[in-house]
Design goal:
- The protein contains six helices and five strands; from the N terminus they run E-H-E-H-E-H-E-H-E-H-H.
- It is an alpha/beta fold and 164 residues long.
- It has a five-stranded parallel sheet.
- Helix 1 runs parallel beside helix 5 and helix 5 packs across helix 6.
């Protein structure tokens, strides 16, 4: 595979169940990515080194899935000027609302694009990353347009059952 254009990070291996939904569209569109578990709290030095290395290697954006305190996206954003896409991971007790509020409340000057909680947010983060890359890649833009057209056509053909 080519050098990664997108980095997918999560704070725990348990988050892969959600974050693989960000990887799926990247894989399906043939966009090279790197997915890792690196905790902002348990391995901060590793995170800082990784963000710098990936930035130097040409990564175009980071997708960060985080639950609970959800510092991962903000810590990444504080270390790079590349776009950071935050995906709140559902938590046991607060169902991801805590994560959503942590990610969406970044201080002025350090932006993180925040997506929906869980699988839909992860999938949309992957698609958003593709859309960003498509700004400078006409072939990828054509494939993204075709994907959107397929979605519209699928909706147009839905038939609801009649009432009995």
């Amino acid at each position: 595979m080519n050098k990664p254009l997108i980095s997918i990070l999560m704070g725990s291996s348990n988050d892969w169940e959600i974050m693989q939904q960000a990887a799926r569209p990247l894989h399906d569109f043939g966009v090279a990515y790197d997915a890792r578990v690196i905790s902002a709290h348990r391995s901060p030095e590793l995170l800082l080194t990784y963000v710098q290395e990936m930035s130097d290697q040409g990564v175009q954006c980071f997708i960060a899935g985080a639950g609970g305190a959800a510092h991962l996206a903000g810590v990444i954003a504080g270390q790079t000027t590349l776009p950071v896409l935050g995906v709140p991971i559902p938590s046991k007790y607060l169902k991801g609302i805590d994560s959503l509020l942590s990610i969406v409340q970044m201080p002025k000057g350090i932006p993180v694009a925040t997506f929906a909680i869980g699988e839909a947010g992860a999938a949309n983060a992957g698609l958003f990353a593709i859309a960003m890359l498509a700004l400078n890649d006409t072939e990828l833009a054509k494939r993204l347009s075709a994907f959107r057209k397929q979605q519209a056509e699928a909706i147009a053909t839905i038939k609801l059952p009649s009432l009995s």
